[in-house]
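Hello,

Our lab assistant flagged a job as stuck in the queue for most of the afternoon. It eventually completed. Since we weren't sure the result was trustworthy after the delay, we are filing this so someone can double-check. Below is the sequence as submitted and the structure that was eventually returned. Let us know if re-running is recommended.
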Amino acid sequence: ADANPLYFADNLYLNGQLVTELRIPAEAGTVGTYAFYHYSKLASLVIGDGVQAIGDYAFTSCVNLESADIAASVSAIGISAFHTCSALRDVTLREGLERIYTNAFSQCASLKEISIPDGVTCISANAFYESGLTAVTIPGTVQEIGTSAFSVCTDLYTVTIDSGVQAIWSQAFAQCSNLETVNMPDTITEIKSE
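-- returned structure --
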C-alpha cells in the first residue's frame, strides 16, 4: 500500500483538475492492486466496458466514494476492493461479473441495497460483512455463500436465495440482528462449517 503514491498524497490532479470523479477506460485492462487505496477525494467511479477485473484493495478506504458503476466486462472484484468505503451507497453490478472476493464490500455502512447479477458464482467470505444492506437476493448461479459473507449486517431484514445455490458456509448471516425472513430453496444441500 505504501508504494502507491496516493497513500501519501492527499490530492490527485489531472490536467490541473482535482480528481473527484473517475472513469477508468477499457485500455486500462484491470484496476491494479492498491491503485486508489485511501484516496479520500474520490466521489464517483465508472469502470468502463473492457476492464476485466478490479484488483485487491483498489479502492479500500475511499471514504467519500458514493457511487461505483462497474461494466459487464469486469469478471472479478478483488479482495477488499471497496472495504471501508463508508459513503458508498450506489453500486451497479452487471451480468458478466463472476466473483466477489473476500471483504470486497465489507464495512460499507451506507450500502443499503445491491443487485447481485445472474452469473455470479462466488460470494467469498466476509464479502458484505458489516455493510448497511437491508435486503439481498442471491442468484441461483452462486455455488456457495462464503463464511460470514453477510455477517453483522444489522439492518438486513430479508434474504432471498434463488434456486440453484447449493451450500452456505458457517456464520454467513451471523449477528444480523434484524433479520426477519430468509427464503431458501430446496437446492441447498449443505451448511458447511470451517
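-- support follow-up --
The delay was a queue issue, not a problem with the job. The result is valid. The mean pLDDT is 93. The chain is about 0% helix and 25% strand.
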